[in-house]
Design goal:
Elements: E1 2-11, E2 15-25, E3 30-35, H1 41-49, E4 57-66, E5 69-70, H2 76-81, E6 84-87, H3 99-105, H4 114-124, H5 126-130, H6 141-153, E7 159-163, H7 171-186, E8 190-194, H8 198-204, E9 207-212, E10 215-221, H9 222-227, H10 229-234
Parallel strand pairs: 3-8, 3-9, 6-7, 7-8
Antiparallel strand pairs: 1-2, 1-4, 4-5, 9-10
Helix pairs in contact: 3-6
Bound molecules: adenosine-5'-triphosphate.
Adenosine-5'-triphosphate (ATP) binds at residues 11-12, 15, 17, 35, 37-43, 55-56.
């Protein structure tokens, strides 16, 4: 289980952005993390993947643990090696490198098995196989999202953290990304899905959290969140 307990995060030593967050991603499950812009979702993912330091953030209190062992003081590569891999918001791929080069970079933390995983990625994302020699910068938004997901999966993670994978994608593409999340999860990888698209996230997740101003305000099974009046009004646009 990947677990966040009473986590407080500050930026630049002064700005308290997470104010005592508790969250759990059990092995093999899909968990959704919802919340308005600025609620602290990306900050939470940075804390899980060791990337706070790059952004002048620190864990002021609380912990992130993986199977009971603290990981919040580890460097990003060490966290990837332990099985937690992130796709950052904006699907940062290396624009000048080819699709295949990008995928291979995702395997830099492993000693063996990369060739088999690459073959598996091409099964999961046939479009990446077709475009394996193309420069990543020329891919469509949806293809870049797949490449970013494929690259993160190349490390063979037990936990995949996705930051707004549907952002800016056409509805058909959103559906495809959704199906891929289900498939990745079926193959055994747990997913923490940060989404503005609450309908999409709650349709695949078993459990969901809502973050507001750095605090968890709702922590419920996805089906209950889908039925919650506030969620329906604020996140699903229902009246
Ligand atoms: P969004 O959907 O807009 O990405 P979010 O829920 O992911 O929102 P965060 O990006 O975690 O929220 O931001 C939470 C708060 O922390 C915001 O007020 C933001 O301005 C602030 N923040 C984020 N990164 C930094 C940073 N490097 N330095 C200072 N403040 C930051």
């Amino acid at each position: 289980m990947l677990r966040v307990q009473n986590l407080e995060v500050v930026y630049d030593d002064v700005m308290l952005v997470l104010r005592g967050v508790d969250l759990a991603v059990p092995e093999g499950r899909i968990v959704a993390l919802l919340g308005a812009n600025g609620a602290g979702k990306t900050t939470l993912l940075r804390a899980l993947s060791g990337l706070l330091g790059v952004h002048h953030g620190t864990v002021a209190r609380g912990s992130v643990t993986l199977a009971g062992a603290p990981i919040h003081r580890l460097r990003p590569a060490a966290i990837v090696r332990r099985g937690v891999s992130q796709v950052m918001e904006g699907r940062r791929t290396f624009a000048e490198l080819t699709v295949e080069e990008n995928l291979r970079l995702g395997a830099h933390t492993r000693r063996r098995g990369a060739a088999d995983t690459l073959a598996r990625m091409y099964e999961l994302f046939p479009v990446l196989k077709q475009r394996r020699g193309a420069v990543a910068g020329y891919l469509s938004g949806g293809e870049q999202q797949m490449l970013a997901m494929g690259r993160a999966l190349m490390s063979g993670p037990a936990y995949l953290l996705l930051d707004e994978p549907s952002l800016g994608l056409a509805p058909r593409m959103v559906e495809q990304v959704r199906d891929l999340i289900v498939e990745i999860n079926r193959a055994g990888t747990a997913v923490l899905l940060v989404e503005q698209n609450a309908a999409m996230a709650l349709s695949v997740a078993e459990h969901g959290y809502v973050l507001e101003n750095g605090r968890v305000v709702l922590d419920k099974p996805a089906a209950e969140l889908l039925a919650d009046d506030d969620i329906r009004e604020f996140y699903l646009g229902a009246h």
